[in-house]
Amino acid sequence: MHPPRTPCAAAPRPAPTWPALSILALAGPLISPLAVAQTAAPAAAAASAPVQQVEVTGARNNDIEQRRQATAAKIVIGREEIDRFGDSTVGEVLKRLPGVTLPGAPGRGGGPRMRGLGGGYTQLLIDGQRVPPGFSLESLTPDQIERIEILRAPTAETGARAIGGTINIITREGYRRRINDLRLGLMHETGRLSGNGSWTRNDSVGDLTYTLSASVFAGRRESEGTTLTTETDLDSGALLREQVETNQGLGRRQGLNVTSRLQWRLADGGSLLLMPVFFHSQGDNRQRQQLVQTLGPTPAEYDHAAVEGDSRYSVGRLNLQWRQTLGSGLRLELNGGTHQARGRSNGLRREFDDADVLLRSVRDRSRNVDRSVLLNTKLSKLLPGDHSLVTGAEFERLSRSEARETEQDNTDPLADFEGDLQASSQRLAVYAQDEWAVNPNWAAHAGLRWEAIHTRGDAGSGGERPDNRSQVLTPLLHAVWKPDPKSRDQVRISLTRSYKAPTLQNLVARPLLSSRWPAAGPNTATHPDRAGNPDLQPELATGVDLAFERYLPQGGVLSANLFHRRIRDYIRSTVELETVSWSPVPRWVSRPKNLGRAVTQGIELEAKFRLDQVLTGAPAVELRNNLSLFRSRVAEVPGPDNRLDEQPRAVLNLGADYRFRGTPLTLGGSLNLTPGSRTQVSETQFREAGRKRQFDAYALWVFDPALQLRLLASNLAAEDYRSLAAVDQGGLRTQSLSTTPTNVNWQLRLELKL
Fold first, then answer.
1. HEC letters along 120-155
2. Which sign, positive or negative, has the C-alpha torsion 402, 406, 411, 413?
3. What CATH number is attached to the domain comprising 514?
4. Would 28 be classed as within a structural domain?
5. Which of 485, 623, 487 is nearest to 556 (CA)?
6. Given this model, what pLDDT does residue 418 score?
């Protein structure tokens, strides 16, 4: 019998009272008499108007109104709200939205994830088009964004690869007025200075309107961390081995981003849109590691290590869109796009004993090129009976060329696997959807989408060649019920099917060695090699969403959203001891597998309003609060804590802004809190993620409409971030506890309109 599993002491679970208190704080306005006492909203005629698109101009009221009028539920964040905090990255904007999380330590996160789900469950779109492989949010700045749309359930038009949801980023549109925005920023963190700048120009020449945006960044950042690795006898609880590895490093990064949007007005209601994008970044880092073993039957593998590396990444993208009104409510849209991304990285690790004698060296080199071509067409038609019909087809081809070399002490343990990888994926989709006002009380949205994906490639002489085919048929239904067309209350329901396709990296079986352990000997379960699985099948999810929304007279909104997803063929990477061809001894290897069934569900509460809307005589403080609670279960994994990978129990966001009357000063702040959680990965493997708490604040001084100064402070309540990985095998528990300090980041920014 295994001893009871205890959570890592360094990452305690939060007290059970804060979610309940937060629910009351957020839901209170929903039942408050002050919130109920509101004037009747629009006329019945407006409520029963035909379904139509709402043009967004950036004002908060228009953002709320577009959300209210949409039949398929979505949250709209416009230009005004994006500008409010003055975030320097798109990730910082997204992390405050309901149900959105960023992985890793505060300020070090990667791509956004909805409803706490891991990578691949959230669909990311740019101007309604899926982003190509290798796309990074770093290639966009908040200055280049017109609005952000959050779709909690998929539609036939936007695509069904969205079990968690869809984030659609709309780039800034051209206006027929001249705008020149210049922003210059200086950042300070751990004694290091960094700088960034951006410029956006908007103008028109004849029938052409254009927007040109350019941004640059350069800086240095210190890093440090500690990893405690232990081996414990499961029967006796005796500690058999204990090691502490410390890491200190300094990294440098710089980059350039240029985006343009050129739009021509054509005769007879047509338009032509051209959107080129270029992004380049490069950087290097230097680290020093120290290993101290306080207990163990054998000596430590090394005393200290020097690690260095550099990387370059460039991407170019060109999209073309043609729209034409054909008469009688018929509209045709053709889109085409091409993309190419190149990446290169070099890494060298050298390990020494206490006499500074070289014990081992590991060198990794990689080069990759990603290319894509996207073609799609869409036909929209307004039909009698307030119907809005949309049909379309999409074709996408992705290709990847990859070369990788690994040297350990001037030998190549993966020589049989390191031929160039050539792989491609083709996707074909057709869809149809209809949106209509059934009566003054009901509006509906129904769609059907079919997608087929074929991935194949040559993985080199030693790897399995992927040849994977899958197809998914996804029916989708959304409905809105307005109990009283004159009121501002409405209820939404969505019944959907969505899916997650395996990535090319997950399908290719070629291994990636752990740099911590040489291939000539064994590794550990907490530092495994990694390999793919050519036999993976896509995950298929059936879902239901139920929401209640109340829209306040002056633009606020109160909402509660329930969701449930039942997943089939759930994919998870598990660690197992394997006999492998690249080592004379068995190695621990992490591979993705289809485990079976899983379920996730939760509630998302949101309250966004001005305080004087619900409390007479209160100051005009803008409040933006949301709370998301999640539960999940993987059927094939024993509980407790058999939740989906990386899904926290909850996410809380509290935000407020206030402009002092009679002064040019505005103050604001936001708190993002994610409690720690534990995930049972398999019967013998579990992980723990520590609490994340990030408090940001800003002060804005407006000298005049063309000049303002902003002071931003990120992560004011900085605390160490901790994570743990553990595996039970052969009567032993091997676990690694990683601790990453976080720091306060200060930024001073000058914002000009020229």
1. CCEEEEECCEECCCCCCHHHCCHHHEEEEEEECCCE
2. negative
3. 2.40.170.20
4. yes
5. 623
6. 63
Q: Are 459 and 418 in contact (CB under 8 A)?
A: no
253 — phi, psi (to 5°)? Answer: -145, 145
3-state SS track over 482-549 = CCCCCCCEEEEEEEEEEEECCCHHHHCCCCECCCCCCCCCCCECCECEECCCCCCCCEEEEEEEEEEE
Q: How crowded is the C-beta side of 91, counted as CA atoms within 13 Å?
A: 18
Q: What is the pLDDT of residue 109?
A: 63
Q: Where is 49: in which H helix or E strand?
A: none
Q: Which residues of 93-104 are buried (b: 16+ CB within 10 A; e: fewer)?
A: bbbbbbbbbbee
Contact of 71 with 491, CB cutoff 8 Å: no
Reduced to 3 states (helix: H, G, I; strand: E, B; else coil), residue 388 is strand
Give the Cα separation of 148 and 169 in Å (integer).
5
Cβ 481 vs Cβ 441: under 8 Å: yes
Taking the chain (754 residues) in runs of 10, the rounded mean pLDDT of each run is 40 37 37 34 36 42 85 88 81 83 74 85 89 75 86 92 92 75 91 90 90 92 94 94 96 92 88 93 96 92 95 93 88 94 94 94 90 94 89 93 84 72 89 93 95 79 69 94 88 95 80 80 86 89 96 89 96 90 89 94 94 88 94 93 91 93 93 93 92 94 93 93 91 94 93 88
What backbone torsions phi and psi does residue 300 show, to the nearest 5 degrees?
-65, 155
pLDDT number for residue 619: 92
Measured between alpha carbons, how far is residue 74 from residues 151, 483, 639 in Å? 4, 20, 34
Q: Is residue 741 part of a domain?
A: yes
Cis peptide upstream of residue 12 (ω within 30 degrees of 0) = no
Rounded Cα distance between 483 and 505, Å, is 49
List beta partners, residue 624: 608, 655
Query: Which pLDDT score is estimated for 4?
Result: 40
- Residue 77: inside a domain: yes
Q: Are 500 and 163 in contact (CB under 8 A)?
A: yes
* Cβ within 8 Å of residue 380, ≥6 positions away: 330, 331, 332, 333, 388, 389, 390
Query: How far apart, in whole angstroms, are the C-alpha atoms of residue 207 and residue 218?
Result: 37
How many Cα neighbours within 13 Å face the side chain of 687?
17
Q: What angle do CA 676, 646, 452 make, to 5 degrees?
A: 165
CB 23 within 8 A of CB 605: yes
Distance (Å, whole) CA 471 – CA 538: 9
Q: What total number of domains does the chain contain? A: 1
Identify whether 585 is part of a domain.
yes
Residue 330, both tokens: 């018929």
What is d(CA 749, CA 754) in angstroms, rounded to the nearest whole number?
16
Q: Are 241 and 233 in contact (CB under 8 A)?
A: no
End-to-end C-alpha distance for the chain, whole angstroms: 72
Quote the domain boundaries for residue 654.
17-753
